[in-house]
Amino acid sequence: MYKTVLVPIDMAHLAEGKANVTLAASYGAQGSKIILLNVVEDIPNWAAVDLPAGLLHKSVEATRAELTAIAKASGMHMDVDVRTGHSYDTILDVAKENKVDLIIIASHRPGLQDYFLGSTAAKVVRHANCSVLVVR
What we know:
With 136 residues, this protein is an alpha/beta fold. 46% of the residues lie in helices and 26% in strands. The chain contains six helices and five strands. It has helices spanning 14-27, 45-48, 55-74, 87-97, 112-117, 120-127; strands spanning 2-8, 28-40, 79-84, 102-106, 131-135. It has a five-stranded parallel beta sheet, with helices on both faces. Strand 1, helix 1 (14-27) and strand 2 (28-40) form a beta-alpha-beta unit. It is globular, with a radius of gyration of 15 Å. The two termini are 21 Å apart.
């Protein structure tokens, strides 16, 4: 059983994320810490100029509210973390900061682009210093 479990959730694939929350509860030890994480991609400065002011902040707050609702619906205490940055780098940073034992991450069917660049899940698997459970 794991003491600290990190569950990165892609808001575009919420059903998989909710399933992974349930899975995290089964892998966690009694009293384990489960962290729900979403990474909002940074908006490049050249694109941010044309967007409404505060859009990134609003997106972060809406995501935090949705993750909090997922945690509450699970019936367990879970920490919620929403950050901006690049997905795989941020996932690995949060895992290191919190001394995570297990990362449970969803993987989607790869497209042609993913075979050349690698998906977020693949990068996390290659570079994580802890166990990683990839759910497809």
